[in-house]
Design goal:
76 residues; mainly alpha; 5 helices
């Protein structure tokens, strides 16, 4: 299984995905950082992959939700 950052890089990176899909750059970057893409956005990325001739399918995306990022405040 590929990771979300792997998939994003395979599709040309954050900026390329944003430019090709119209999805805000900050949104795509947050997916990469969180290692998670919302299920409803996956078809857009699969369509982009098809356009680019990349082998990315819906099954390529991890099904797990990201673990919450802990902060120092939560640890205290």
């Amino acid at each position: 299984m590929q990771t979300v950052p792997d998939i994003i890089e395979a599709l040309g990176g954050v900026t390329a995905i944003s430019n090709e899909t119209g999805i805000p750059l900050t949104t795509v970057h947050s997916w990469k950082r969180a290692r998670f893409v919302p299920r409803w956005r996956v078809p857009t990325l699969v369509a982009l992959a098809s356009k680019l001739g990349k082998s990315v399918t819906e099954d390529s995306f991890p099904n797990l939700r990201p673990e919450p990022v802990s902060t120092e405040q939560e640890a205290a």
